[in-house]
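Worked example

This section walks through a single chain of length 102. The input is the sequence exactly as stored; nothing has been trimmed or padded.
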Amino acid sequence: MSYPLTRPTRFALEDFARLAGIHPELLRRFVALGLLEATTGGTGELWFSPSQLGRVARLQRLRAGFALNYAALGLVMDLLDRIAVLEAERRRFAGRGARTWI
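Given that input, the structure is written out below as tokens.
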């Protein structure tokens, strides 16, 4: 048995699907809908960065927990990302001793 010495910088579709625990066709659908980011290789194959694993997990939780359709998933993901940015800004300003605006 061999072990990699470094972490991969990207995963092929099949490997990423296995790691994420979902069908490769669903990954293709997520990419087509703009819910996931992927790059394409020279022959058109999809490649995913390891950071997208967390995004897939969040998509799965939202879909299972709230039974959201794909359009709603995109909207909720955008809102959650925006909330994270605003909270980070609030923490940054609060850390400087400035008044919080909430």
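What to look for: The chain has four helices and three strands.
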